[in-house]
Structure formats: structure tokens, C-alpha cells
Amino acid sequence: MSDRQFNIKKLRASDIVRFKGTNMPLIRLAVPLFLVIVLGFMSAYTVESGNVVVERTLGKVNHEEFGQGLQFKMPLLTVALEFSAKEIVIDINDLQPKAADNLSLRDLDVSVFYRVEADRISELMVKYAASASRGADGIYLPAYGLVVREARSAIYENVSKIDSLQLHKQRDVLQASVLEELQRRLDHSDPGDFQITRVVVRALNTDPSIEAAIRDAVEAEKRLEAKQVQVEIAKKDAEIEIERAKGIAEANRIINSSLTAAYLQHEINTALMRFADNEGSVVVLPANMQGFDLILDGSQLNRKSN
To answer: At what angle do helices 171-189 and 144-159 cross, to 10 degrees?
Structure first.
């Protein structure tokens, strides 16, 4: 190796040593700074409006809920679980409960809306740890499984109180009774923690045989209503005929009261005078004079004959 090549290698080695010595303090400062930044990002988190965060440190749950905004936790040691304190909807589908007449529905879909008090979410998280469900957005739904189970039970219980033929007409009654029963069940186990805001029956499909029976019942009801209308019409027609007959009877009574014997005799005399004035007219009288006393006074006829 030549002297020149040896000097170049020696120079490069010395330059490297000098570079390391010059930048060592900067490297020593950058590493802790980088760790501080990483830990800072790991300790900070934000909470969306309408949600709360429950912190768990080394398995211990902090029962103070943290609301919306920027919050901080212990990095690596503390886990922040974000729960929804807004209205939550549960869709319960494809139920086949039995009605009061022991007939099963083909399909029943119900939506239940509920809320949990924000300052009670940490307690419910501990009490119903296996019941919390995580939504598609990563937000936890408090006691979701508990509400689902109680809602299904309340639905089955209240459907069993109504006949299958009446369920379509009493949908509002069913919704109100399920809401009341579900609220009662939750208040019994956790008073004031849950609020059932709405219950909506989205679909109610009965068995085909029940649907046919419903159609027959509706048609029979319509026929009955038509018959009742016809009966009412017949009653009104009879009342009209009765009033007409009463009017005729009253008119006859008035006419009969005005037909006195003197008036009838006057009319008969007037008729006889018209016969007498008309030459060639013939008046036929009974041979035995039967009924002649209606025309002339019988006492006068007897005197003329004598």
C-alpha cells in the first residue's frame, strides 16, 4: 500500500471520529425529546360530543367520567374507553312470539331506543362488563346486551297478551306496553340509570293462515256493518210509514167528525134534485126500500104512504 492511500484512509477515519464527537450531544438530546413527543401523543385523547370516557389503570376503573374535549391519561398504563351517552337504537329482528290464542307470528321486527345516564356509565361498565358492545365506529354501547335480553323478554310477554287477529289493530298498544314493561324491568335492577325513550314495531307479519282469518274477519265485519245499516234504514222506513198512517188516520178522523146526518141528508137531496132536472134519467131504488132510510127520513115516507 502506498503512503498516499494510507494517509487518505487515516484522514477519513479521523474525520468520522471528529464528526461523532461533534454531534453526540445533539443525538443525546433528540432521543429523549422524541420519546417525550411520543408519550405526549399517547397520553392525549379527545372525547366527542355526547360521549364520555371511562379510564382503567392497571385493571382499576376510575369512576369519574370524562366529557367532551381534550383529555389526558397516563401513557401505556391507562386505557381510555369511550362510551356513548346519546340515544342508542337496538334493532331486534326475526322474532316469532306466540300470541294470546297460541298462534305464532311469522316475523316481528322491533326497534328499542334507550339512553344511559352519563354519570353512571362507569358503574354499569363494571357491573355489566360482558354486556357492553362496541359499535362500528369504535364507540362502546353501555349495557347493550342487558337491554337486548330484557327487551326480547318484554316483547314476548306482551305479545302473549293479545290475540293474533288483533295485533295489527293494537300495534300502538303493543309498543306502549313493551316500553312500560322494559322500563319497569330496568328500574328494578338499576333504578334511574336507564331511560327507554321509544319502542317501534317496524314489521308485524302473521302466519298465512292467520292473515286469511284476518281477511275473513274483516269481510265479515264489513258485511255486518252493511246489515246494520240496512236495519237502520228499514227502521227509518217503518217510522216513516207509521207517521204516514198516523197522518191518514188523523185526516179520516177529522173528515168523519164533519160528516153529520144533516150534512149527508143535504148532499143526498142535492143529488136527487140534479136527477130530477135531468130528463130521461132513471133512478133505481130497491124494491124493499132497504137502505132508503139513508136517503130520506123514514118517518116522512110512512106518512106519505098513509
So the answer is: 130
In whole angstroms, what is the distance from residue 260 CA to residue 191 CA?
95
- C-alpha–C-alpha distance, residues 86 and 106, integer Å: 33
pLDDT digits (tens, 9 = 90+) for 122-166: 999 999 988 889 988 889 999 999 999 999 999 999 999 998 888
| Burial of residue 144, with CB atoms counted within 10 A of its CB: 0-12 exposed, 13-18 middle, 19 or more buried | buried
What domains does the chain contain, in order, with CATH numbers? 3-48+63-80 (no CATH), 85-206 (3.30.479.30), 261-299 (no CATH)
- Enumerate the β-bridge partners of residue 109: 203
Per the CB < 8 A criterion, the answer to whether 56 and 79 are in contact is yes
Note the pTM of the prediction, 2 decimals.
0.59
Residues 115, 88 contacting (CB under 8 angstroms): yes
